Amino acid sequence: MSLRVQPITREEHLAFVASRPSASHMQVPSWGDVKPDWRAESLGWYDEGDGGARGGRLVGAGLVLFRPLPKLKRYLAYLPEGPVIDWYVPDLDRWLDPMLAYLKARGAFSVKMGPPVVVRRWSADAVKTAIADPGAHRLRDVTATAHEPRAFDVADRLRRMGWQQTEPAGEDGFAAGQPR
Predict the structure, then answer these.
(1) Alpha-carbon radius of gyration of the chain
(2) What residues does CATH 3.40.630.30 cover in the chain?
(3) CA dist., res. 149 & res. 38, Å (int)
(4) Would you give the end-to-end CA distance of the chain in angstroms?
(5) Which residues pair with 82 in a beta bridge?
(6) Where are the transmembrane segments (predicted)?
(7) What is the pLDDT of residues 123-152, one digit of tens each?
(8) Which of 30, 84, 118, 149 is 20 to 30 Å from 24 by CA-CA measure?
(9) Of the candidates 52, 85, 50, 64, which has an alpha carbon nearest to the alpha carbon of residue 8?
């Protein structure tokens, strides 16, 4: 099954996100409305082997924010906490390759995304205990109450595909306040 990426309407995007068990608020079209200096676009992933009015069934969606480079027609493309796709599929490149081709054709020189894949979770009790512990300064100082082993596999596959994990920048940097 091949996938095709193309722009979708706000309504299609919202309907898709509403049909998922969970999605970040940064992956709804209105998030793009509150980001000054960025141009927002909703993308859809279509399963071309599944017929339908647009030549396939909508199986993924993503809000892309484009930040222009001064005086050039080139852009940084950013998908905050997204896209909303099945991150645990074994053939992740089948999802990301058409996205990269589309974004490159739109003038993207770099793509930053935030896969919504949770590696560790902490129960409310663990967090409360950590707040009271003077030795715990950050959440990572606290033992997690649950781990998702598939998340490590996703990170490993992304690295093998050539994606790089960005390290947090200084307080004023692009990554400030953003997930790694």
Answers:
(1) 18
(2) 3-116
(3) 35
(4) 31
(5) none
(6) none
(7) 899 888 888 888 888 887 888 998 888 888
(8) 149
(9) 64
Cβ-Cβ contacts under 8 Å for 47 (sequence gap 6 or more): 1, 3, 56, 57, 59
Identity of the residue numbered 131: I
Could you read off the pLDDT of 38-93 as tens digits, one per residue?
A: 999 999 999 987 655 556 899 999 999 999 988 888 999 999 999 999 999 999 99
- CATH of the structural domain 3-116, one choice from 3.40.50.10790, 2.40.50.140, 3.40.630.30, 3.30.460.80: 3.40.630.30
CB 159 within 8 A of CB 180: no
pLDDT of res. 170: 42
Sequence length of the chain is 180
Q: Supply 143's token pair.
A: 């033992």
